Structure formats: C-alpha cells, structure tokens
Amino acid sequence: MGSCLSAESRSPRGSSPLSPSLGVRKRKNSKKKPGSRNSSFDYRREEPLHRIPGRMFLNGSSEVASLFTQQGKKGTNQDAMLVWENFGSRTDTIFCGVFDGHGPYGHMVAKRVRDSLPLKLSAHWEVNITSGDVLKEISLNTAGSMNPEDTTTLASVDEEPRTPIDMGEAEKHPEIFQTLKESFLKAFKVMDRELRTQASIDCFCSGTTAVTLVKQGRDIVIGNVGDSRAILATRDIDNSLIPVQLTVDLKPNLPAEAERIRKCRGRVFALQDEPEVARVWLPNNNSPGLAMARAFGDFCLKDFGLISVPEISYRRTTEKDEFIVLATDGIWDVLTNKEVVDIIASAPSRSTAARALVETAVRAWRHKYPTSKVDDCAVVCLFLDSDTNNLSVAANTRPKEDGVNCAAEKEEDISCTTGLDRSGTVRTCEEIHPEDGSDVMNSEPGKDWSALEGVSRVNTLLTLPRFVPGEDETKPQK
C-alpha cells in the first residue's frame, strides 16, 4: 500500500484529533496580568478547538475568507485547511493554512498539524514578543552593564539561541517579520519533533505539506513547507487583476534542494513515465519516491535530505491587493495562477469563491488527465479589503450536492484507522516503469529554469521494490 517500507511500518494505536492537553484544567493559583493577551494554550484548557470563535476548518465562509475542500478519487481526503480570525487573541490578526497529507496515514498527519501548529506558533510568538520587550527594557535601563552571557540567557527563553538577525534584513522588514520569522522556525521544528514521538500516528512513511500565513494589519508573513502554494491577486497599472506568487513549490527539482538531498546521501531522479517529476529516494532502496523536498513527517527520509524547515517570506499589502489564495497541489497541477485569480474574481459571491475554484479544478482534472484519478483539493481564499457587501456569510454550511465530500460533517476520530484501498499519493509497483540510467533532473541545458512554474503530476509518493544487492545504486530496479 502507501508505506515506503511496509514491512517496517507501524500501525496507529489510537489517537484523538485534538491535543491530549485539551482536558487539562487551569492551575488554581494562575493569574493573568491586567491587559495581557490570552495565550493560545489557554484555548486548549478552556474548550475544544472546534468551539473557538473565529476558527474555521470546514467548508463555508466568513466575512473575510472562503474555504472549501473536496475528496478526490484516490481514497480518504488527505487535505486539511484552517482560517483562524482573532488569532492569538489579536483582533487584527488572521492565521490561514492548507495542509496536504500523503502516505497511508497522511490524513491523520495533516489534521494533527492543522490543529497543533497554530497553537505552537502563537505560543512562540508571545514568548518572542515578551523576551524582546524584556531585552529592550534592560537595554534602556542597564546599557553596558551586562555581560554577553547574561544577555544570551534572557534571550533564550525557549532554551535555544534566538535566530541571529541580519541587519540588512532588519532594516528592510518591520519588527513583526523578525519576531514571526523566529516563531515560525521554532514552531515548525517543535511540530516535526512532536510527530516523530507521536505514538498514535505512524509518520514513518506519511507526512504533510503546509503553507501557512499570518496577517496582522497590512503585514503578511508566510511559512511554507512542501509543494502547496500561496498567490496574491493584485491590480496592475491598467486596473487588471494579476497573480503574484508568494511561495516557491519546494520540489526536489530545485537545484538547492537537490544538492542538499544528495549531500545527505538521498537520491533525486524522475521515472521514465513521468520525466517532469523529480522524486526523493532512499540511498539503497527504490522507495519512497517523494515528490517534494520538505515536509512534516516522512521520517524514513529525514536522515537523507528531507527537512521540515519552512521558507519564510514577508509582504506588506497595498490598496491594490484584492485577495490571497492558499491551495494544495490538486489545484495547481491543473490550473495556472492567472486562471485561479480569474475564477475567484468571477465567482457569484465571495462565500462561494473557494468552492467555485475546486469545482473548476475537478473539471480540469477530468479533461487534462482522463486516465488519472482526481486529486484531493483544498482552498482558502482570504479577502484583503473590508468591504463585505458582496459576501453572503455562510460559515461552515454544508453543500447539498451529491458526490461532494462535505467537510462540514463531524470530524472523524482519527483513533479509528480509515481503510485505504489506495493512498491518495501512492502508486503500486505494477503502475511504475522505472527509468534506465543514472539520476535524472528535470532541467534542460541552456533553458531558463523557474521555480514558480510548478509541474503537472499525478502522485506524490511511490513505492518500489528493494534494490538487488550489488547493483548500481543510482539505477532503479528493472
């Protein structure tokens, strides 16, 4: 099935879709300072995540966002999504994210990251703000009176050195970027570490992408891992809507990604029947064939070049910016950035924008890849202006059409293992025609290469037989 090394995989032993600490009671003597923000972890003590006001993870819309996900034709829907308004108890702050799981338990990993990552991000954000304020106060009151060791101790609230701030970058971006950049890096690291020790979900050959965004006022900070994508729709000088890609699809065909993987003894090459899709392989096994260079989970590859370190970017929106679209690769495999912008802009209403995009992508899949199974799709559309006259609020409404995977149904308990006839991102050995020859990269000499073009592909993860001992390691088994 979907496991890259099925004989070594472990079965999940039960899990809850929410963090175990949800049921923890508040300490009796805990007190809050007047005027302080509620910690994100206070939510976990107070009530379940799905009851938090402003937190949406089901099909529907609010005054500022539209969400929709639909199951493909490969099995359980492994995509997840989230919009969290008033994020971190800040009235002007929104968190958005889409998560594309892969492997036999990818749906569990995607939901776990969706539920846990925002809490970790908010908590580390608060720590960084607090430690930053302490350092500023100390700098003003006791300038020159402290030795470097004392300063380091105060800065290392999370028991790790803070990320060094490049002075040129600090001048170019506002303080919120530096603070959130450190918070993103720390939260992603802790999230992946937690998945590694998670006994209830087998993440050895399962994982998820994550493209996440925090918007505070006009400032936007994005953390991206994998090949999901975020784009911005803005007006040009002719007042026409044009797309601006905010993230890079972190695939193994990127030169820097491929170099890192090979330095760690991982292999990167494409198969004969899909030469445009570079994949990551173990040094001595024809598996797992992962079509991305960064991901949460997938610990079978973490010692061979796969990482979960996010690529962080910043943008300050202007009055010309209309909306942002975050979507899993089920959308980008069949639609261009421009097509996505035009579909959202022409939707009957903002509340139906995300659904209109998914339905168009499904039709495109059937037209472009009639012999392939339609991929799962998840879309979050965040509108940047405050004009809500043309938006009909229908938060978490359930579509009535048949054949649509309604995410408004009650979240399944992931302690019950879902039977998968076939993982949404796995191909069987019979479907694969390995390529003869050495490692192949998707690049042509003399041709300009762009990371923003993306590729059309069918699957993310492959499973192939083991290598025959003694054969050339660079060649897949025939």
From TrEMBL:
PROSITE patterns: PPM_2 (PS51746)
Basic residues: bias regions: 24-35
Pfam families to which the protein is assigned, alphabetical: PP2C
UniProt domain PPM-type phosphatase: residue ranges: 64-384
Keyword list, A-Z: Hydrolase, Magnesium, Manganese, Metal-binding, Protein phosphatase
GO MF annotations in UniProt: metal ion binding; protein serine/threonine phosphatase activity
Superkingdom, taxonomy of origin: Eukaryota
InterPro entries, per the entry: PP2C (IPR015655), PPM-type-like_dom_sf (IPR036457), PPM-type_phosphatase-like_dom (IPR001932)
Cofactor(s) recorded in Swiss-Prot or TrEMBL: Mg(2+); Mn(2+)
Record's compositionally biased regions (Basic and acidic residues): 159-172
Compositionally skewed regions (Polar residues) per UniProt: 145-155
EC number per UniProt: 3.1.3.16
Catalysed reactions, as listed in the record: O-phospho-L-seryl-[protein] + H2O = L-seryl-[protein] + phosphate; O-phospho-L-threonyl-[protein] + H2O = L-threonyl-[protein] + phosphate
Positions of the UniProt region annotated as Disordered: 1-45, 145-172
Biased composition (Low complexity): 12-23
Family named by the database record: Belongs to the PP2C family.
Protein name per its UniProtKB record: protein-serine/threonine phosphatase
Lineage, opening ranks: Eukaryota, Viridiplantae, Streptophyta, Embryophyta, Tracheophyta
